[in-house]
Amino acid sequence: MTTPLLTGHPAFKFLAGLASGMPTLTDLFQQNPKRAEQMHIAAPALTLDFSKQRVDAYVLSGLEQLFIQLKLPSAIDGLFAGAEVNRSEGRAALHTRLRLPDESLDRDFPEVSQQLRQMEDLVCKIHAGVWRGFSGKRITDVVNLGVGGSDLGPLMVTQALKEYALPEARDLRVHFASTIDGSQLFDLLEHLNPETTLFLIASKSFTTIDTLSNADTARAWLERVCPDPSLMLRCHFIGISASVDKMEQWGIPSDNQLLFWPWVGGRFSLWSTVGCAIALDLGMPVFRELLAGAHEMDEHFRTAPPLENVPVMMALLGIWNVNVLDIRAHAILPYDGRLKYFPPYLEQLEMESNGKSVTQDGVPIDYATCPVLWGEVGANAQHAFYQLLHQGTQPVASDFILAANRYDTAAEDVSRSINRKHREALVAQHELNIANCLAQSRVLALGNDAVDLTDNPFRFYPGNQPSSTLLLERLDAFSLGALVACYEHKVFTQAGIWGVNPFDQWGVELGKQVALQLQPLLNQPTGDDSVVLDSSTRFLADKIAGFRRESQENK
Ligand SMILES: O=P(O)(O)OC[C@H]1O[C@](O)(CO)[C@@H](O)[C@@H]1O
């Protein structure tokens, strides 16, 4: 099947024709005072207000037509039914299967429920202190060794939901180390006790050098104190992968292997046994609640009509911004310190998925695809890059993410021993945070029209920067699951419209190959002819070798 190119479609041409006459956001709000009432939609656990996007009813209907003309409804059915949506690798992408309710899993996909149960069993043993280190001591610390999708998802979720950790999980500390230079692991190992530390080696392929080099360092650290290698592997390493063979080769005992499948993309894998770090840090019921929230969002995505469908609407607004308004930058601005790792998580999800320039058929694309996406906790970003958003020369679209309720539950009082005064102070902080979030999207949209300012060029705010606000009633496991699934489906929908494959990542392969090619050259003198290097790489390699020699000589 040939994937049609976006720009040739009648609906796209219609949309392109609307761009030049599009009023500013100030005008749009003046023309229709009920704009926000008409331009918000709801999905499980969240509401999307898109009234600050530069769209009107004509644009929305053109986007809906585009969605239909590009056959996205059948693409979505295909995703859920297990069609080969990842064509370059000949695979389905069935992360949605991982969050089906237990009854359907047991009935239709017993291999998934079996792995979930095995994970639960390991988690319970660790929490209960039944799983012990080589010297018989209880496990106090777990280190997740993984990178990309095998790190960012669990890291993001555990940071976001810390306050929901169940009593059985509170005595266990969960850490993450991903960097190939070993610096995170180096810092951790300084403080950890090898007798009571357990490592999760999370790698879909179990070949990723970043993760395996960290795993080798962890093993060397343990070998210093544990004389029995098989006891050490049994008590201190759990493997999480789609490759049993590779786990076997590394030495992971079969009882310590947690599996997932080639049809789970790395950046879509937090719902699989890659979520083990989440379950260990927060408790298995919290992990299951996360799955439940994602499943509800799956159902919404599968069944809601396009203009009432939150992930579809987010995707369509993105297409309008990127391909019609030519806005190539997208900021993710959670007004919630707990979502600190949400922007990096989305950077991988969106840019590794849709940073592509050929269609599923390998045909070069002549229009923009994924924008540059970055972000930061909103209130901190105000003191970093908002200057550019307000007065720079780049058009930027933003997503504001906000939870209405915070610091208001008895559970928080118990878990953090909060007294009344302390809580009142925190609630006041939350209110300040909300005010800042709303103020920023208002000023970005309306600029100087938001308030009456003097005529001073340095205080000129042009406004007209579009944004959406995703409002959660509260941030908890269920709503976070729904939020993440929402972005996953946005990514899939945009990929369908751009005609690209969101489930491969060939772009990162060449760099890995070249690194392997270069490594042996680092210790060879100039003049080795096995690989002809460009002069910059040769210069840097020689310079580094020189510095390292000097350092050796000075020892
Ligand atoms: O889980 P693995 O196989 O170690 O891969 C880690 C990451 O590396 C990539 O393959 C490429 O960066 C990502 O897609 C993936 O999440």
- Annotated CATH topology of the largest domain: Rossmann fold
| Helix vs. strand class | alpha/beta
What's the helical proportion of residues? 40-55%
CATH superfamily of the largest domain: Glucose-6-phosphate isomerase like protein, domain 1
Strand content: 5-15%
Biggest sheet layout = 6 strands, mixed
> Regions with pLDDT < 50 over 5+ consecutive residues?
none
CATH class group of the largest domain: Alpha Beta
Radius of gyration: 25 Å
Number of helical runs?
23
How many structural domains? 3
**Bound ligands:** 6-O-phosphono-beta-D-fructofuranose
- CATH architecture of the largest domain, by name, is 3-Layer(aba) Sandwich
Q: Tell me which oligomeric state these chains represent.
A: single chain
Number of strands: 11
Strand order of the largest sheet: 1-2-11-10-8-9
End-to-end Cα distance, whole Å, is: 64 Å
Choose one word for the global shape.
globular
